[in-house]
Amino acid sequence: MGAYLEQSLGLQNSLVFILSAVVLLAIVLGFVTYSIYFQRKVLGWMQLRIGPNRVGPFGLLQTVADVLKLLLKEDIIPKAADKPLFIIAPVIAFVPAFGVLAVMPFTDKLHFADVGVGLLYYIALSGITVLGVITGGWASNNKWALIGAMRSAAQMISYEIPLVMSVVGVILMTGSLNLIDIVEKQKEMGMWFFIPQFLGFIIFIIAQLAELSRTPFDLTEAESELISGYHVEYSGFRWAFFMLTEYVYIFAMASLTTVLFLGGWLPPFEFLSFIPGIIWFALKFVAIVFFIFWLQATFPRMRVDQLMQMGWKVLLPLSLVNILVTAVLKTVL
Amino acid sequence: MSVPITSYLLVALILFCIGLYGALTKRNAVVILLSIELMLNAVNINLVAFAKYGMFPNISGQIFSLFTITVAAAEAAVGLAILISLYRNRNTVRVDEMDLMKR
Amino acid sequence: MANYFLIILTFSPLLGVLLLAFVPRSLPGTVKALGILATLVPLVLALMLYANFNSAAEGLQLVQQWNWINIPVGDQAIPINFEVGVDGLSMPLLVLTTVIATISAFAALTVNKRWKEFYILFLIVEMGMLGVFTSTNLFQFFIFFEFTIIPMFFMMGIWGYKDREKASMKFLLYNGVGSAIMLIVFVALFILMGTLNIEEIKQLLTSPMSPRNVPDMPGFIPEGLRLGLFLALLVAFAIKIPIVPFHTWMLKAYQEAHPAVIMISSGVLIKIGGYALIRMNAAFFPEWMNQLSTLIAVLGVINILYGAVLALVQDELKLMLAYSSVSHMGIVLLGLAAMNAEGFQGAIFQMVSHGLIAALMFYMVALIHERTGTSNIRELGGLAKSMPIISGILLTAMMASAGLPGMSGFISEFMSFVGLFGTKPIIAAIGALGIILTAVYLLRATLGATFGPIQQKHESLSDAQAIEVVPMVVLLSLVILIGIYPAVLSEPLQTTLQNIVPRIGG
Amino acid sequence: MNGASKWGNLAQYDWTVMSPEFTILGVATLLSLLDLVMNKNSDRRILAWIGFIGILIAGYFVVQNTGQNVVSILNDMYRLDGFANAFKLIFLAGVAFVFLISINYVDEKKNVKYSGEYYYLMLMALLGAMMMASSADLITLFVGLELLSIASYILVGTRKNHIQSNESAFKYVISGGIASAVTLYGMSFIYGLTGSTNLYVMAERLSSVFQGGFDFLVYLSFFLMLVGLAFKISAVPYHMWAPDVYQGSPTPITAFLSVVSKAAGFAIILRIFLIIFGNLVNFDMTNGQQSSVLVDTLGLYIAIVAGASMIIGNTLAMRQVNIKRMMAYSGIAQAGYLLVPFATLTVLMFEQTIFYLVAYLLANMGAFAIIMLVNRDRQTEDVKSFAGLYHRAPWMAIAMTFFLLSLAGLPISAGFFGKFYIFMSTIVHSSYWLAGIMLATSVVSYFYYFGVIRQMYMRPGQTEAPLKVPFTVAAVVLVALAGTIAVGIMPDPVLQYIHHNFPLQQMFQASGQ
Amino acid sequence: MATLYANNYFLVVIFLSLGVLLPVVALTFGRLLRPSNPTEEKRKTYESGVDPVGSSWVQFNVKYYIFALLFVIFDVETVFLYPWAVAYDSLGLFALVEMLIFITLLIIGLIYAWKKKVLEWN
Question: Given CB atoms, is C164 within the 8 Å cutoff of chain D?
Fold first, then answer.
């Protein structure tokens, strides 16, 4: 990929770029399909159930069937809704979710855009999704949708700050915002950043869960209270795109965590380096995804006031402390 | 593949004019605040464009724009806060209804 | 002592201000007495000045200067000094000021409220007037000039009749415009000359050797600029004098203000205009003064006739006096327009004489108004029966004002017209018409007030008391003194005038 | 150099020159913390006094810095020169006065609820103003400007439950936002042409750019900046906000806006325009003569702004019945007068401006102190509330008279000499039309200033009860009155002090000279 | 170097356009497949099965705005943290001190909000 990037833009490498992006999109869609399956299975095992097992072998085609069903469902737009915004909201939510993957390095060879400010790009773009959520909730002109959207927005912006601040420690240690540089630095130090940046790592993981609206922070969904939050009026494929966004973000976040704190494609020990980097990356990635689903079976949902206080009163001060400690330690050591 | 600086400046100019027009003519206070943000963003485009393609390309333009962004945010925050307290007292965000003092 | 004499004279009214400040408001008697006594201090000092004045000496006497302000320009500084001096032109006016002030202080006894403030403001005005006449520096002149305006505003606005506030505002705005224009000219002169000393400016502007007068030298002042400055000054002082289109402030003020206030205004303040015309216009720009003398003369004639005609139809005594003042100040202009020694002397005589007579007449009006509650001729009449002294003196004053020989009015008018007949006989002839009208309207008013049937309610009114008579007598005797022995004034004037106005003939 | 390498280049600068700013920042922080830990119901006047002491200390540091050579740190982002010191002293004095006035104003629960915030926000605004005076870099200038502006927006709206206060605060935010956007847009072009935010580098590069065919852009940015910055001084193209905002704000804040904020506006205007456009020259091809752009071309526009401000401010002030609105229009007019020295650019330009600002500071602070007292006592802001003041508080009335005389520019008051000095510059520059406007509008101004005086002395008030004058307000009035009269009689010491201690040419000198 | 820079962002543009394209294509495709039979009841806004009461575009709890304001402030402050963190190595100790002051002020801001009970939900 690096070689193509060096060349001036021509027909050949344009095609390569486009095709590779399409391939990634396909992979991501596949991931989403099977992560839902995976999630249901994991939850099933943990709750001593079987999970999907009817459609296809081991129920492997269950999600595919679900997608097909969604595609064939009637698309209803409420009369009272703000139609243009209603239509555009899922797109606003989805585009950044996929867009952030443009800078994600999977190995030192296998990556797409090698942007100097990759991390900043990721953070900046991911912040836009909240707009889609708010737009969707507001455009529905439904009380539950609006409350859900507002809550969801409040939660997302509240946890965005600790998230953003917790990575400052990583930047401090690396001196670069380039995601490849960050992995290289971990290689150079011989230590993945979750060890020196343990506090930052914890904050990042928690904040990330909240950003993804996963348990124990899945208040926006809150089936029992808000029916299903901001997308209550959405149906069919429009609804599917909100779901898609959510799972693509799981993909992106898991990748980002891997890159920032778990050494990306680096092997845990030098002697294991014969195994290709992509495998290591995939392993760590899957571990995180599993972790995320695992929590869903373990933790109860938080109360909204607990949620907000946790973000502002615990995580934010901690992340500020993390920055200070990192800076001081870096100077002293 | 490089875009001439004039197009950046033109975008900025258009943005600035839209913002100015909105700030001067709109009735809704929130829209006015947004228009002001638009104007400030036009400035940012200008600064960043000049920082890269100006007569003497250097980084100070980008630094300037960082400060502009921050200040714009603070200004918007204060503006919104004041608007909220105004709304609590008067129950309106329409600027043409804010006429208690004309004499 | 001699060194500081003029300074002491100028600021002597402040002594009274200081003392008054410590007298409690609740003792009106003390306040009034102190107020009158305080005016005596400058009076005595002014008389001492008159006694010690050297009439033969040319130029300024008792000159003193102190450095006041330095305007830093680069490394050097342009000084603005505080400087005083007196000559034959200002000395009579100084004496006039103190005399009128004392008399007005007596007239102010009829003020009905807030005596303390009245006398404090009054004394500040006196200081301003004295300062105007002692300053030999344009800047200082301006500041003291303002010192007369602002307290006057208060005095007109607080103590007066129904519409006093409007009158005071009008007074302020007119005089404000005048002083603003004056300031423009002064600053311009300062920038052009580098000095504010009147004498130095005169030298620079008139001496043939001065670079200001030699074309192509740096600092040369072209004729156009001189004309502009001259006209601006003329307008500034025209408001003060006042020359006809600018006279409306005076009508309103004379109608609404307390007579004691008007006595100062009419007696001294409006003279500042004439004084400054001689001191500045004639001294700085003699050529233009000469060339435009016809214009000034015409303005003078307009003033005389306009004032006289309108005075003729007034029923309100105060308004009549106001128009009469306009008319009389026209004579000052005529004298100036003559551009010769007789004319100038006539002008100055007229200023002093009108000062005295106007003060006297307003004093009389004040007394009448206090007793009858009106000063409208229609509501008066027959006063001679109930108050013979007041009526008698009023009649005498009217005659003096009309220019009866043996009184100061005659001398001044005579000299002015003699001067003007020498240069502009036609205009002088037209102006002389006004003199006849003067006699007519004065007689009409006086006779209307004093003779004829008396009104019922006026029958039992008391005549003037002794203390009220004193000022009248003093003023009247001064009027007569100048009338029969003009040398008291003309002697110090003679040499001075030659010195002040370079182009003045014989 | 060993220590330097460890601590970085920044540590080599002489940070002590910033001690006034550090003091203010420290005190503001301290106040905010104290405000947080203090009991909710305890008396917060102590905070005002701490702040006041902080201001005095900062003032002491500024005086210590006065007369020093130029010190420039952070690549001219911070400069210590005569220009900066002069303005800082004015700001500090202004805010000190405002603090004293506020102590009585804020105290009442109904006026301003959060008194702690009130004080440290004002200190932050002061800090912004000081940075504006003391910087030669667009970024810091802009940040200082906004620090001042944003703090003032909040201060204007401190009366949270007062509808007019809210409304005026919102109007202020909107106008301020537009103004800073316009200013910034102008700045961005200048930056683009010169590629630097340092004013000196900009000035150096701008001449060649100017002659290289970009004169249109230079003019454009000049006008944009002029319009935008006119907001801060409430001069004409951008004055409409002033009446509403002045009327709606708490009176001490109105005083603050009218003096400190305005002076800060002048600081930034003079600093930016003098340095950047100072040595631009127009080259006349026909006769090969050079002429200074700032003096010959731009000066005219500034003069037009000045003249228009005087005319509009003074004429509209006549129609006002609300005293604060009247003072707002009067402030617009005063901004016009204050622009005159800059428009004419004589050698005395700086002395004239500073002197006038001092006179204006004294008069306006004193006037607003009394306005606050009277308005609060009568529960109305009508000019009529001054009726009979002379009988209620004669000394206050006399003091007010002097302040108004000073604002009108009549002797004996500091304002007279201020106007006189400025007036001289118009004649030196031969802009007689400007001189004419200046004097004519001054006369117009008599009308409304004396209107207040008329109320005080000539109209009967609704009550004759003596007005209670709190100690701090009395102190402010006394100091302002003494200053106004003393400077009005002997202006020389002040002028000489300005001339010798705050040399303007330091503005153009490099560090260490 | 310039091509690398441009190509990187070209890729970014590709990703973003794909992000737009996918929904558009999927929805267009879906339109051909899915039934469309809107009726009044279907198009009614959902409100727990009863007819909706009034519009939902109503005044909202001010709490949300205050959190939004807080977010804006803190989020924007990170704008300064990032460049500082990147350039930290070349700035020296003094930058640490400066950033200590900056972060201290941020913390004071947080404490302020805390004390003023802005961080409480409800």
Answer: yes
Q: What count of other Cβ atoms lies within 10 Å of the Cβ of residue D491? A: 24
Among C70, C164, C180, whose Cβ lies nearest the Cβ of D442? C180
Average pLDDT over residues A287-310: 87
| Separation of alpha carbons C425 and C418, rounded Å | 9
Instruction: Give chain D's residues under pLDDT 50.
Output: 1-3
In the three-class reduction of DSSP (H, G, I as helix; E, B as strand; rest coil), residue D137 is classed as strand
Burial class (CB in 10 A: 0-12, 13-18, 19+), A333: exposed
| Domain total of chain C | 1
Q: Is E83 on the interface with D (CB under 8 A)?
A: no
Q: How far is B103 from chain E, CA to nearest CA, in Å?
A: 32
Tell me whether chains C and E touch (3+ CB pairs under 8 A): no
CA-to-CA distance for A65 and D476, rounded, in angstroms? 82
**Is residue D5 a part of any domain in this protein?**
no
Whole-number Å distance between alpha carbons of D127 and A204:
37
Half-sphere exposure of C183 (CA within 13 A, CB side): 30
Does any domain span residue D233?
A: yes
CB proximity E122 to A under 8 Å: yes
The pTM (predicted TM-score) of the whole model is 0.91
Q: How far off is chain E from B4, nearest CA to CA, in Å?
A: 14
| A131's tokens | 């707009």
Question: What pLDDT sits at residue D2?
Answer: 44
Helix axes of D262-278 and D349-378: crossing angle, nearest 10 degrees? 160
User: Nearest Cα to C183, choosing from A58, D420, A129?
Assistant: D420
Which chain B residues are closer than 8 Å to D325 by Cβ?
101, 103
Pick the closest to residue D339 from D301, D292, D291 (CA basis).
Answer: D301
Contact D217, D193 (CB under 8 A): yes
Q: How many domains does chain B have?
A: 1
In this structure, is residue B75 part of a structural domain?
Answer: yes
Which residue stretches of chain C have pLDDT < 70?
Answer: 1-2, 74, 502-506
> Would you say residue D6 lies in a domain?
no
Would you tell me which residues 33-92 of chain E have a C-beta closer than 8 angstroms to some C-beta of chain A?
33-38, 40, 42-47, 52, 55-57, 60-61, 64, 67-68, 70-71, 74-75, 78, 81-82, 85-89
Spell out the residues 6+ positions from residue C436 whose beta carbon is closer than 8 angstroms to its own: none
Chain E contacts of D124, Cβ < 8 Å?
Answer: none
Range of the domain at B69: 28-91
Number of domains forming the structure of chain D: 1
Among B2, B69, B81, beta carbon nearest to E76:
B69
**Contact call for D458 and C73, based on CB within 8 A:** no
Which residues of D are less than 8 Å from C181 in CB distance? 439
- Structural domain harbouring D63: 17-508
CATH architecture of E63-115: Up-down Bundle (1.20)
The pLDDT tens digits for D253-277 are 999 999 999 999 999 999 999 999 8
Report pLDDT for E29: 86
Domain presence at residue D513: no
How many CB pairs (< 8 A) connect D and E? Answer: 30
